[in-house]
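I would love for you to help me understand the pair of lines that follows before we discuss the fold together.
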Amino acid sequence: MTVRSRLRLQLLLGGTLLALAAAPAVAQTTPAADPAQTATTPDAAPPAAADDQQGLGDIVVTATRRETNLQKTPISISVLSSQGIADRHVQSLFNLADGSIPSLRVATFEARQSALTIGIRGIVPYDQNQTARDGGVGVYIDGVALGKTQGLNAALFDIERIEVLKGPQGTLFGRNTEGGALSLVSKAPSGVLGGRVNAGVGNYGSHNADLHLDLPSFYNISLKFDGVYQHQDPTVKNPLTGSTGWNYYDRKGGRAAARWQPIDGFTADFAYDYAKDENTPQYSQLINYNPNNYAVGTYNAAGALLLNGAACGGTIAAGSTKPVCIAPKAPLVGVHPERQYVADVGVPQQPSVDITHGFSANLKYKLAPWIELRSITAWRGVSTDQWDNSGGPERSSFAPFVPNTANPTAINTTGTFSRYSLSFLRQHQFSQEVQAVGSIPQFDYVVGAYYYTERASEYAATPLTNQWNTNGTAYTVRSPIPGNSSAITGANSGYQQYDPSCNNTLGATVPQFANSCQFITRASQASDHNYSVFGNLTFTPEALSDVVHITAGGRWTKDDRHGTLFVVNNRSDLAAGTGVVAPFSFKNNVSRFDPMFNVAFDATPDVHLYAKYATGFRAGGANDRSLQFNAFGPESVKSYEVGAKMDFLQHRARLNLAGYIMDRSNTQFDFDYFDTNGSSVTNGSHIEQTVNAGNSKIRGIEADLTVKPFPDLTLTGSYAYTYWKAPSALNPLGGGVQQLYIVYTPNNAASGAIDYVTPIHIGDASVRLHLDGNYASSQYSFQLEPTKTDASFVMNGRLALADISVNDHNKVTVAVWARNLLDTTYIYRRSAANSTPVQNIGANGQLVSTNYGGILGDYANFNPPRTWGLELSAKF
């Protein structure tokens, strides 16, 4: 306890001294924050003098539910502006996986693009891609929280800014924001006729187009329409004719927005959006083989496994480390430590389809000078048809080269491989938030209430789509219908969702699955109801010359979640003798209060210091990959933060600093295994159980620097240091105590950018040059594995001849862009599950032994290769 307290005190004092030492000035060049944060500050000050507009301008944010100057808002915020989005050619959130904002971590869930993992400050979920689970970072679109990460990688519409709010945001944003919030803010209708059209082409068959149209206001109504289309061919080809390769996407969507202002002080914003994203996962490839150097046998003409002419045989005795010999690697499967562009083995795969849509109504009425009433009403839905066959023979489902439990030296006679992960999820949500925001002498306040309800259902299957011959020199593609043993010779479209001929007992108890078959591995549904009231009050004592601002806030939340697991990994024997699945149910209720205290001090007009304490939590739920829908409770975090925001050199430089300590209690960790036993009732299934495994510690320092040495040049740099310590815990599935790891959280991450803009005498045009570089040290990508990914460094660039005047109203921009400019190759996700002890599974699906050394090797996912293109944009 003494060591822990001393470390906390040292970090807090060190951050304060660092801020004071830099006191000649400072501010942040990370663009600004958004409609949901947890801090309070006075109303936005008038823009600071910028030396004839040659210095850095102010950034206005709404982190405190009111418009404030970023530099006077006592919270750590990073923002990517619309220009930054264009310069980096950010078309979807996965493009931010390169680390453009160091504290924000974005990765795929498993290898798939249809669901993303979002983390801030070490709060990164491993598997929230389920019906009854949440992440620890809230994702918002125009102030509306998204309940699921499926469909999160859809095309971005006309985004004004992307705001990253760091640290617990529980007071003003609510549950599931213990790490922070990611907020996307759309451009509102202007009421002035105008628009923009963009079109581009690039390598890998990519092409894109988008249209943004503002209509002139009529009868106090302004309308805006956005349409987007994005396409890229696979970057890794699939040898199976008729099947889609890997890292493919085809995105399209539209958004319509209306703003109604019938009287002074009243604004009503309405919006509807629809997006369809067809995509395939990143490719999983084998990067080494037989790392434990076991003796490798050979097959004779009769298919017997031999070593030096003698038959391999026998079973592993207790305590033994390896068998007499292991089966050889299939000749068709290669070892590829570098990026592959063509897979070794073709597998059936079609694009996953994510559809997201929603409607929102945002009303504001200035009732009196001291109060504004607000209402945010929203309905959203997402549907995902997932067809993910990323592994082929490179994953742990690779048989016959995984031994069976009876004779570890023998092959699995089924010879099946390549797990097709199929999921069909439907989710819809409704939320209603009301607020009262205002100011009276010496006080600023925000009070409100929030209601959220959600319902999600999913059924899934994991058929093995391919089958080896006896020695791995050839393979066939199996039936597209799980449970059908007949093979077919051509390509197939994967999984047949509905088969009216199947024996269906599920529909008797679950009407929405009345047309589905029982060969699905799991089917579940869950509902969530969330109620909360919240408030923030900021006091600025006149006696202290209006330079001290004291904020106290809190949020009371009641969260009620329940659900049912109807099918458990193809098992229909759960109600013995009846032939009918006995559903497993869970209920999870929590009521809690999350406080926040913030003291801000304006040391000078350009130096602002703050200290903050806040708490947050991630709701509990249940894991639908478990065998019994095992429930787990909420986790919570306490955060201590100090920071400084400074402008200096006559507003030509900004430096923002933050140091924080976070203690997380009852951390939700996932324990899992993949069943490769061909005789098991759960063969081919991913078995997982989530428990509240213990306490985690996270500490960090963040710095953002912007320098504008002369009007044409802007230099930016950001750095995030993150230290974390996770507990050890007993594996509930067996296998003893295991050390746990926090995923996708590098100790060191940094980004830097150069922006040069200079006018030229060609139709009032200018040349815009942007270069950015993004670094991250190695990190873990699995909670149970000590294997690390590669360190990474990625550069992006864009060169544009911008705003060429065609006439008095129209301007054209021509640009060339490149992502991963240096074509850097690194592994962002790596598993040694194939190399470490194989988990032998008993008949009841429990892990019973880990004493067999793995033979296959590590598999990995590489970052996307270099992409580049040309783009033409016209404003009218």
User: Anything to note?
Assistant: Helices lie at 2-21, 82-87, 170-173. The first helix runs from residue 2 to 21. The chain has a mean pLDDT of 81.
